[in-house]
Design goal:
With 84 residues, the chain is of the alpha+beta class. Helix content is 19%, strand content 14%. Bound molecules: iron/sulfur cluster (SF4) (2 copies). One iron/sulfur cluster binds next to α1.
């Protein structure tokens, strides 16, 4: 599943540079995750790096973007230009 940032975000900017897919950016009020780019870090790391660093634990799985590990792996291959 892609992850999402809730309105508990304090705009600390710690997560943005940690994302290997460039999926995190500053939104109008809080930071946002592009669900088309978030692979839950599948393909890069064993754990979601943004969740690891967020000091207020406001990053959760998005109920609107349910994806299996296989789908996340396929998304990683597409994003990185390795999809056959
Ligand atoms: S889980 Fe990984 S890919 Fe998704 S937004 Fe967080 S750091 Fe980026
Ligand atoms: S690390 Fe957490 S609090 Fe900081 S900008 Fe990212 S989502 Fe917001």
């Amino acid at each position: 599943m892609a992850l999402m940032i809730t309105d508990e975000c304090i705009n600390c900017d710690v997560c943005e540079p940690e994302c290997p897919n460039g999926a995190i950016s500053q939104g109008e009020e809080i930071y946002v995750i592009d669900p088309n780019l978030c692979t839950e870090c599948v393909g890069h790391y064993d754990t979601p790096q943004c969740v690891e660093v967020c000091p207020v634990e406001c990053i959760h799985v998005s109920p609107d973007h349910k994806e299996s590990k296989e789908q996340l792996q396929q998304k990683f291959l597409v994003i990185t230009g390795q999809a056959g």
